[in-house]
Specification:
alpha/beta; six-stranded parallel sheet; 2 domains; 297 residues; Rossmann fold; 11 strands; 10 helices
Length: 297
């Protein structure tokens, strides 16, 4: 068996097109504010790409770039001002923050109705309780990718490897919302390989390069690889590196029914779901109906 490679870029493009269509039908443009502290090169690229994608979707992008020496109090005050600004619908604080700033204190200043990253305690609580709210972008992207291969996830056995608050735990809860039977596995799980082999859908979010081998995967399963790991690439020359996922793609593609590559799978979905969340936040705040094309079901 040779699996399909799940084209995350194409699926993300479809989500972004749906967002643009939804925005065009709204009474006014939603606005997304992205806050960046410091000059980390990767973060600079991420913020620029998010702003560009926001504008391309027909929304308003507000970028706030602050120096690395910005105090925690000043940053909290800026985020609080955005939370109180009626013209701002979504707020994203680019992580990681400089070491002298406590991330939890900054996230606590975000109005939960504008928490498009789904990282506040209020957002996490709504997810656990099954109440309406904004869901984390990367886990939502995992569900959308899985549904492109299996539109009705009801009854599917899902194994999520990794219990982080950013991906693993919310992914497990989001698949549970889809009426799946979910196992949340981790480094202490007994006989992890055999647990994974029982999965109809396997989500790898553990941060270990190519940990999931072909013999971890049930033939015909759907594999979603969240990992992005930089490893040496001697074939490219001395000192060169490359990105790989948590799944050994070459082995998985010979066993599974479908595998999301890394890079090119979950990554593009994260920004697409951020744009989707911005529209959902605007609809919730302003009393607009949620466009049908943005409903996850």
């Amino acid at each position: 068996m040779t699996a399909r490679s799940i084209d995350g870029k194409a699926i993300a493009a479809k989500v972004r097109a749906d967002v643009a269509q939804a925005v065009a039908a709204l009474p006014s443009k939603p606005a997304l504010a992205v806050v960046l502290v410091g000059d980390d090169p990767a973060s600079q690229v991420y913020v620029t790409s998010k702003g560009k994608a926001t504008v391309e979707a027909g929304m308003r992008s507000v970028e706030i770039r602050l120096p690395a020496e910005t105090s925690q109090a000043d940053l909290v005050a800026r985020v609080d001002a955005l939370s109180r600004d009626p013209e701002i619908d979504g707020i994203l604080v680019q992580l990681p923050l400089p070491k002298h700033i406590e991330e939890a204190a900054v996230l606590a200043a975000i109005d939960p109705l504008k928490d498009v990253d789904g990282l506040t305690e209020a957002s996490a609580g709504k997810l656990v309780l099954g109440k309406p709210g904004l869901r984390p972008c990367t886990p939502t992207g995992c569900v959308i990718l899985a549904r492109t291969e299996r539109p009705d996830l009801t009854g599917a056995n899902v194994v999520v490897i990794g219990r982080s608050i950013l991906v693993g735990k919310p992914a497990a809860l989001l698949f549970l919302e889809q009426n799946c039977t979910v196992t949340l596995a981790h480094s202490k799980t007994r006989d992890l390989r055999m647990v994974c082999r029982g999965a109809d859908i396997l989500v790898a979010a553990v941060g270990r390069p190519e940990m999931v081998k072909g013999d971890w995967i049930r033939p015909g399963a759907i594999v979603i690889d969240v990992g992005t790991n930089r490893v040496p690439a001697p074939e490219k020359g001395d000192g060169k590196t490359k990105l790989v996922g948590d799944v050994h793609f070459a082995e998985a593609i010979e066993v599974a029914a479908a595998v999301s590559p890394s890079p090119g799978g979950v990554g593009p979905m994260t920004i697409a779901c951020l744009l989707r969340n911005t529209v959902l936040a605007a609809c919730a705040r302003r009393g607009w109906s949620v466009p049908d094309m943005l409903r996850l079901g």
